[in-house]
Task: structure prediction
Amino acid sequence: MKSAPTQTREVWKRFIVFEGIDGTGTTTQRNLLSETLKGRSIPFHSTAEPTDSEIGRLIRRVLAGDVRVGPETLAYLYAADRNEHLYGSRGIREHLDSGEFVICDRYIFSSLAYQGCTCGPELPARLNQSFPLPSLLIYFDLPPERAISRISGRGAPDLFERGEFLSEVSRAYEGILERFDAQGMEILRVDGSRSIPEVAEDIRRAVLS
Ligand code: TYD
Result:
């Protein structure tokens, strides 16, 4: 536990966020953590951004290249999707209020990193400044070249699934993590190149501690 948090945002208890560049294995580990919680009869809700709402689906069409919008508009879309995800009916807040854990694949840190690289840091920082922080951020660390080789077998790449761009995003994440760490946020960095069971065990320990 960090002793002297200095950040002023709300921190939501039992809210756990997975982050990392594309291809780092967050979905696999989110599913494994879900199994662990289920096995212990701990109530939880597993979710992801972009969501499967209308806004999330529009974002996925932009990522697939079917709809064209500017990078700033995409930053607004991610923030709109997030606002509904947090505060909408059956959203994250409701699940937490009913005593569940919420495990979320991607959150504000993705916007700060990815949109920070496409439209500069100011707009995503502003659009995301009032959203609450998770009580634990789990960051998947994997060299971009390994992440790309994992993605390459998955079919047509999305807008952001390019090696050079992901290297830039990876560097952006480093600065963002450093900042939130200095503000007292709880962060677990996992080495995504280790075996799936080893990583799952680290996560299990951090979540259940
Ligand atoms: P991702 O979770 O990787 O989707 P999937 O693995 O199901 O294709 O998210 C899609 C992309 O969206 C990914 O490249 C990261 C990007 N993204 C942002 O750029 N900003 C954000 O705020 C979020 C949530 C995701």
Observations:
- DSSP finds nine helices and five strands in the chain.
- The CA atoms of residues 75 and 82 lie 11 Å apart.
- The first strand starts at residue 11 and ends at 19.
- The radius of gyration is 16 Å.
